[in-house]
UniProtKB/TrEMBL annotation:
The lineage of its organism: Eukaryota, Viridiplantae, Streptophyta, Embryophyta, Tracheophyta. This is Uncharacterized protein. It comes from Aegilops tauschii subsp. strangulata. SMART domains: ANK (SM00248). Transmembrane segments: none annotated. It comes from the Eukaryota. It holds the Pfam family Ank_2. InterPro entries: Ankyrin_rpt, Ankyrin_rpt-contain_sf. PANTHER family: NO MECHANORECEPTOR POTENTIAL C, ISOFORM D-RELATED (PTHR24121), OS11G0247700 PROTEIN (PTHR24121:SF19).
């Protein structure tokens, strides 16, 4: 994760982050941030050498109030990706800040042009749903699926789908929700898929559901 937040000049036309904003985001100091933004709104748009904006940095430290306050002033911060291809939402889920991630998700859903951010994959191909399942946040995973079912289609660079990861961990509620999505991916590492995982775990309900899914896929492909 790109969490080095020292201030310096950056390439790509991005302005460097003001040290005062860096400190405010790191400490969760909303009052200082608001005062600085009042004098110069564009101060919120600066980034660190790793591409982190002030929302990324505050998210890394889990400062929920700061995050919500800065988004009231500058919504575009939600869509920025750092050098690891991480949005603030992906960072929140990766680091286990589930309540903050839930709030960031709701912010993304409020505006149609921000919804695409929910689908962002990091440099390893993990999206927010992969990370939620990986970290055991089942409630958050269900929220993500409800908000953006297309998250279920993404496959990591390690060839892991959200369904495969959910079945491997015996997350029944999440697996069933994913099974209900017709075009959700089921692939897993080493040529395996979610049916292998369900059979290995002895989960008969999931095994039956996955068998039906594969039968449908096979028939469609044959036609």
């Amino acid at each position: 994760m790109a969490n080095n937040t020292q201030t310096t000049d950056v390439s790509g036309g991005r302005s460097r982050m003001d040290q005062r904003i860096l400190e405010a985001a790191t400490c969760g100091d909303s009052s200082s941030m608001k005062e600085l933004a009042k004098k110069n709104p564009s101060i919120l748009l600066g980034t660190s050498p790793q591409g982190n904006n002030c929302l990324h940095i505050s998210t890394i430290h889990g400062h929920k109030k700061f995050c919500m306050d800065v988004l009231e002033l500058e919504r575009s911060l939600l869509s920025d990706v750092n050098c690891e291809q991480e949005t603030p939402l992906v960072i929140a889920v990766t680091l286990g800040h589930a309540p903050l991630a839930s709030d960031l998700l709701k912010c993304c859903c409020k505006e149609e042009e921000l919804r695409r951010i929910i689908l962002q994959q990091d440099r390893y191909g993990f999206n927010a749903l992969h990370h939620a399942i990986r970290n055991g946040h089942q409630k958050l995973a269900l929220e993500l699926i409800e908000a953006e079912p297309a998250l279920s289609k993404a496959v990591t660079k390690y060839n892991e789908s959200p369904m495969f990861m959910a079945v491997m961990r015996n997350f029944t509620d999440v697996s069933e929700k994913l099974l209900a999505i017709a075009d959700s991916s089921h692939v897993g590492k080493y040529g395996r898929h979610a049916l292998h995982a369900a059979a290995r775990n002895g989960n008969q309900c999931e095994t039956c559901g996955l068998q039906v899914k594969y039968r449908i896929v096979y028939v469609c492909a044959a036609n």
